[in-house]
Amino acid sequence: MSDLIKLTAAALGEKIAAGEVSAEEVTRAHLDRIAEVDGRVHAFLHVDSEGAVEAARAVDARRAAGEKLGPLAGVPIAIKDVIATKGVPSTAASKILEGWRPPYDATVMTRIREAGMVMLGKTNMDEFAMGSSTEYSAYGPTYNPWDLTRIPGGSGGGSAASLAAYEAPLAIGTDTGGSIRQPGAVTGTVGAKPTYGGTSRYGLIAFSSSLDTPGPCARTVLDAALLHEVIAGHDPRDSTSIPMPVPDVVAAARQGATGDLTGVRVGLVKEFSGEGAEPGVMAVFRDTVEALTKLGAEVVEVSCPHFQYALPAYYLIAPSECSSNLARFDGVRFGLRTGDDGRNSLEEVMSLTREAGFGDEVKRRIIIGTYALSSGYYDAYYGQAQKVRTLITRDFTSAFEQVDVLVSPTTPFTAFELGARTADPYQMYLADLYTIPTNLYGGPGISVPAGLSDGLPVGLQIMAPTMADDRMYRLAAAVESTVGTFTPPAL
Ligand code: GLN
Q1: Whole-structure pTM value
Q2: Which of 132, 208, 362 gets mutated to test ligand 1 (max ligand atoms within 8 A of its CB)?
């Protein structure tokens, strides 16, 4: 095993820039690691070895020609399979997109390539990003590098596991209800959901358009910030993209690393005081809050009375939007087509394709969403959920009049055993109890490793006002500076 795979992205970028190591060597070290461990972890659905080596060589050539490149040039990255990557399979872990190779790159991917970063491959996930354990992938689950009998979180379990297994130093995730932060928490890695509209959704295979947010996954807060800087910023191709400068998240991470939080007001969400959470998770949370106080933060309790309705509101809004977004998978335009034998009608081909191509959880959501949007039920369900969303946003707005950031555990429980929550969808949905309010509001949230409970990672979630992503990076870096980073047992 090469030592290169243990380095941070920041350190790799510096070594490549200094000419101490080539981008090609760094890339090959990671491809070797993937070949060594991914049979057991299954973080990747597709490894693009040739494309990666080619991209790395191109960076080495540009550097040799004297070109000045960015801090992450030559650094490898794993991409969640929900992101469209030109010419490279992009399935969103669904059978219905098997074999689809997009003719274009998502904006985040374009920016990653422009930064000279090297894509290693596409990571496993819950089908269409619906799930909290990566068990709903049509291609089999991903295993948590901390304990291969446990889940790596979801939907971005592949991205998070690739980091924890040292297969990649950086990854991209998407967060609709927690799919970057929750996998980060249960794998002992950092996962940041930017402000909605802060990163472009162009080229993201849509799940719930008013919530979906691509963001960075890393092993350190600074690495996450460096990647955030690459992918964020206005994109004219996404009508919900915010035409404002990106907050200086890298400077904030560096400031936080000094460990001084004097004058920072931190709010504890009263409604997240631990009901239903594992005692071990709450113990780590309390210790972390204590540590923040020692760094000079002022900690107060804040009430967000409508957070308790976030989960039910989300499970109406997200399925409603997905039922509309997934209508495009009709057996005609993309990927799979079933029953097109000249005897079946167009409607029959469509229905046979969907029957064969969508998994049970995706079908469940389409059915719930179609029902909630149907005339006669719209006001009772979807309309009501939208009202609750407004109330949750008001809770955040009034909380941020009192404090700079809010904190909570990222998840109520640590990584569970595979199969433990698949029988009852509601038990699976509970994994995102603490992360979903942020999505409904649209603000940024980050999960940073805070400690261990029974040998398994626990994350601290930090939530900030919209377009104040820098605040959460500052606090996360301060947490990291006191509690350190966590290394899983050797694979
Ligand atoms: N686990 C949540 C869901 O199943 C969130 C998923 C996500 O953020 N993509 O919908």
Answers
A1: 0.98
A2: 132
